[in-house]
Design a protein that fits this description.
Blueprint: H1 3-11, E1 29-31, H2 32-39, H3 43-52, E2 57-60, E3 63-67, H4 68-138
Antiparallel strand pairs: 1-3, 2-3
Length: 144
């Protein structure tokens, strides 16, 4: 239903099915409350932005209606820019996480190598100590 048809319907008191709480992207017009819920802002802010021309609107009788197609077009431009920014941010975060995982893995490998080195040194010390005791007690050294 176009703006003129909606206006005529109000003037002739025919009923127009308007769900004030549900934004309908297919409808030519939506009420301020539905638009507010859709945008996640207050109804007062919808009225304020419509009054300044930031939101495309038309007054039909005493009701302020938001032009759906113009609003979605306006949001499409903003949302595509927001979407690009979000994708870039996610990509950067993913790259950072990947780099951090590589650094963490390298640090873990270094720690394991160090632990193996320390364990090897300790094993050699223990063996040397045991060989000294065995040599002192039995007069011979263990063969591998």
């Amino acid at each position: 239903m176009g703006v003129d048809a909606a206006h005529k319907a109000l003037l002739t008191e025919r009923s127009i099915t308007v769900a004030p709480m549900v934004f309908d992207p297919a409808a030519p017009l939506n009420g301020c409350e539905a638009t507010a819920r859709y945008l996640g802002i207050s109804r007062g802010l919808v009225y304020q932005q419509a009054g300044t021309g930031a939101l495309p609107s038309v007054r039909i009788g005493s009701r302020l209606m938001i032009r759906t197609a113009a609003l979605l077009e306006l949001l499409g431009a903003d949302r595509s820019a927001d979407h690009e920014a979000l994708l870039t941010e996610r990509s950067t975060m993913r790259d950072h996480r990947t780099r951090q995982q590589i650094v963490d893995s390298a640090e873990a490998v270094d720690a394991l190598e160090h632990a193996a080195e320390v364990a090897g040194k300790q094993a050699r010390l223990v063996r040397a100590h045991l060989e000294e005791r065995i040599l002192a007690e039995y007069g011979t050294v263990l063969e591998d």
